[in-house]
Amino acid sequence: MTSNTQESKILVVDDDVLCRDFLCEILRELGKDVVVAQNAEEAFRMVCDGDIRIVISDWKMPGMDGIELCQKIRNRQLGDYVYFILLTSLSGRENLVRGLEAGADDFLSKPCDPNELQVRLRVAERVVSLEKKGLIVFSLAKLAESRDPETGTHLERIREYSRIIAQTLAKHEKYAKEIDADFIRAIFLTSPLHDIGKVGIPDHILLKPGRLTPEEFEVMKQHVTIGSSTLDAAFAACPSAEYLRFARDIANSHHEKFDGSGYPHGLSGEDIPLCGRIVALADVYDALTTKRVYKEAYSHEEAREIIIDASGQHFDPAIVAAFLEQEEKFKNLRGRLDEELAANVGLPLATSFPAALHSHCH
Amino acid sequence: MPSIDYQALLDRCMGRIELMERLLANFQTAAAQEIADISAAIAELDSVQLQTHAHKLKGIALTVSAPSLANVADELCEAAGDGNRDSELAELFCQLSTEFESVIEQLEQPKLGSAHCD
Hints:
heterodimer; A: 362 residues; alpha/beta; B: mainly alpha; elongated
């Protein structure tokens, strides 16, 4: 888990070896974690694939130049914010305006002065730290779940299961275009928000230990539209936050079923957003393998059989296939997460954690 | 004005003499290549390549604190982009070559590693 004090990795982009090596040496001397790209195309791939939050890029490069690289990074819809510094020996107000219009956050003139570089990087770190959306999103999701004492590490498991399935599907040609590194990061980030609408469900229904009546179930189903309309409103207020649209799609569709018998809209097949189809399986698998007051936890093997039986009805067969391909990871995940959490909070494993969370939130 | 401002360069290398000397060694090779490419671009009347290589030479000259060389490279880059200054290109290239020779002469001076520390 990234701490607030951990500095961001810096990507240096310059086609000139001498300039690139000099900048890298200075950055490492300043204690920075540095990676390099020899051209803008390589840099863009690295930004999309990795956890780079700060880029220092030369302006003039063969092929894609620094301005085009900046624009391409800004046009990414689901990625985290990248602080972009243009490094150039170009001068003049016109060039400054051009760089800023392209989305650059700052400029450095060649030759680069280490003291100036250091203070500008502090600014970059401050900006990047403001955008800790992963932490914010997960905190909101945890808050929504906090009324239910039994969920434990449910959200942590959901996002891991969802990521595993997405990563597996990404290897197949059919999904290669839709599932890129940004999609995988987005599903990890936003799948915990799938049930955020439960905040609008009364306690006597949400926390009922027994089976819900048909009328109570109709109320419970409303958590889907409560969640999706909340996220929709947030997205409308901040249209550049594409991850909110992604979260809305998950909230809105994770109870749809592949054969059209789900809710709230009775969508079927690939009309159900892919992210919703993925989270649907993750959510059901977790529910089956988690102990509740009204049932024991099913074993992985039992859950597996239920999921296989529901392939094509409840679940997208391709997603069931991805789940089966990664069975071992699913089996091992719960234990690993419980151990990690216990290590973080100093508590004994498993059974005491939900109680501790319950008492913490009430 | 010396062709290379050693003190400024050492300051930017954060006092690391070995970094400074490594930069200067690499600079000689890189700058020689850029000058060869500039010469070819002028011969081929290729203003795009000329601008590219002149700009690159400016960048590496600034990196090693060779301001005069950087200025001439910048002038050459501007002239290459201005279609009305073709007649100046040959002269500017001469200045560039002369300035580069001055840089090399200074680099070949004895006590390279210590002269800048005074």
